[in-house]
Fold NADP-dependent oxidoreductase domain-containing protein.
Amino acid sequence: MEYRNLGLTGLKVSRLSYGAWISFGIQIGLEEAKTLLSCCREHGVNFFDNAEVYAGGKAEEIMGQAIKELGWKRSDIVISTKIFKG
């Protein structure tokens, strides 16, 4: 996997990221999310995207629970999220 600097943050992120837009909370549950996230990490992905509006907030909850249950160190991954006014 190739890695890039994320702007001037000092963070190195994988060139490919995983986004949870239409998967977590609607199409797959916690166990499937853990399998998917593990596959991403095994292939070098360290950058994961989410948003509070994905599946009405459920996508963030599932990703967070999966990361917790997988025992990942927070310092090893980068998580981006978005919030929307409304």
Notes: The beta strands are 3-5, 12-14, 18-19, 47-49, 78-80. The chain is about 30% helix and 15% strand. The first helix runs from residue 30 to 42.
